Amino acid sequence: MLGIGRGSREGVMSLEASIKNCGRTKQWSVALRLLREGLRLGVQLVPGHYIAIASACRKGGQWQHALSVLSDMWKAKLEPNVIFFSYNAGISACEKGEQWQRALALLSEMWEAKLELDVISYSAGISACAKGEQWQRALALLSQMWEAKLEPNVISYSASISACEKGEQWQRALALLSEMWEAKLEPNVITTMLGSARARGASSGSRRWRC
């Protein structure tokens, strides 16, 4: 399939480039086939191969394969700072697959491995909690971001607000929107979300009143 020599530098680079291309086009299944073909031809895997595969699985929402890649990286005894990037991809894949428990488990593994989580790590975890309607856990992660001296971005806030809306925590959602205003994050997005939160909150309140 690849037409490369066993263990050659050209083979290593060709395989990595091919897998990355599959990641960009969300062809995760092709990426996995390329990896197996490379192994069959004797290509020595480097960190870039694993990271490219994890990225392809993330974009394809293939959380099971993303977790398998992480396991393989630990077995290959790669440096933790290299595995870090695949953890973020794994958390994002779990978010896309609506596997919030597994996403939180990956975050816990990162803490245990003493990996320094970044905004992407937390935001992916918060997004996973939002999809799982776990607003308490989402806000706990947002709070941990501040404790880690990381500034939440639009994705972090948006996911937290979404989690609060799903949990009918309108006051908390509006408080977060206020924080976004103060941080001057995407005012157009904030305006839209503010109107949505207010409308849902008012609707919920009126229903309770009629009862």
Automatic annotation (TrEMBL):
Q: Which domain of life is it from?
A: Eukaryota
Query: What SUPFAM superfamilies does the entry give?
Result: TPR-like
Name where the PPR repeats lie. Answer: 118-152, 153-187
UniProt cross-references to Pfam families, sorted A to Z:
PPR_3
Q: PROSITE patterns under this entry?
A: PPR
NCBIfam families per record: PPR (TIGR00756)
Query: What is the protein name for this chain?
Result: Pentacotripeptide-repeat region of PRORP domain-containing protein
